[in-house]
Amino acid sequence: MYGLRWGVRPTEFYRNLYGTPVYDLTTNEIHAADNEEFKAAVSLFVDTIKEGLAPNETGGALSTGGFETGRFGMQLSATWDIATLLTMAESSFDWAIVMLPINTDFDKRMLSTFRGNGWCISKDAENKDVAWDFIKYMTTTEEAMRLAQAYGIPELTSYAESEEYLNDFSGSTATYDKSVFLRMLDFTTNFSNMGVYAQINDVIKNDYELVLADQMTVDEMAEDVQVQAESLMAMQ
């Protein structure tokens, strides 16, 4: 039994949990050693795991199931996690979803990493017009939004804010406030995992695991990330 479940997401969220990112995608500047928000984010995840409030899933998700098992008081969830709750937990126990909390020290709400569907057409595609028609169908029709809603928030704003979407629970006896996810869209941050940023992410994750193993302090981690990330960025 645990108070909460972070899942595998801490290694994404601590990069910019409160609004000051470890790396700035616009200027390519590194802000780790001087970033109190970054240190606070790492401390939050590390302390809850070390104190036994949350399981350590850095190496991969637990095989014994998540919030739907009733073994967790809270769970950091994505939109697609709700489909599992609707089919497995339903109304077997009381549950609800809420926005991520506000850190009173920084007076800032926690940010969620944002993932959106992106569509593209290869320059070598033989049937570009057909591909373009498909993209238009997938992004501008309510029928497509209705089919894809179990995997995330519909991209078509008019449908995402409609009564049909907000009150559609796929026939489940359980219901929840779907507008929570819409409101969280105002509190999201980029998810970068390509090129040099993937290398920097690996550095941060490796040091994070050392902190969890009591082989490095949070301050030492921030200093080391600063040095290694600047070095990687300089080679670009």
How would a textbook summarize the main sheet?
2 strands, parallel
Q: What fraction of the residues are assigned to beta strands by DSSP?
A: 5-15%
Tell me the series of helices and strands, N- to C-terminal.
Answer: EHHEHEEEHHHHHEHH
The strands making up the biggest β-sheet line up spatially as 1-2
The count of strands amounts to 6
Radius of gyration: 20 Å
Helical fraction: 40-55%
Give a quick set of tags describing it.
single chain; 236 residues; mainly alpha; two-stranded antiparallel sheet
Provide a brief overview of the structure.
The chain is mainly alpha-helical. It contains ten helices and six strands, in the order βααβαβββαααααβαα. The chain is globular.
Summarize the structure in words.
This protein is mainly α and 236 residues long. The chain has helices spanning 10-13, 36-50, 81-89, 128-140, 142-148, 157-160, 163-166, 179-184, 195-212, 218-234, and strands at residues 2-5, 72-75, 102-103, 108-109, 112-113, 188-189. The strands form 3 sheets. The protein has a two-stranded parallel ribbon with strand order 1-2. A two-stranded antiparallel ribbon has the order 3-4. Strand 3 (102-103) and strand 4 (108-109) form a beta hairpin. The protein is globular, with a radius of gyration of 20 Å. The N and C termini lie far apart (46 Å). The relative contact order is 0.18. The mean pLDDT is 90.
Q: Topology of this structure?
A:
Blueprint (H helix, E strand, L loop, with lengths): L1 E4 L4 H4 L22 H15 L21 E4 L5 H9 L12 E2 L4 E2 L2 E2 L14 H13 L1 H7 L8 H4 L2 H4 L12 H6 L3 E2 L5 H18 L5 H17 L2
Parallel strand pairs: 1-2, 5-6
Antiparallel strand pairs: 3-4
Helix pairs in contact: 4-5, 9-10
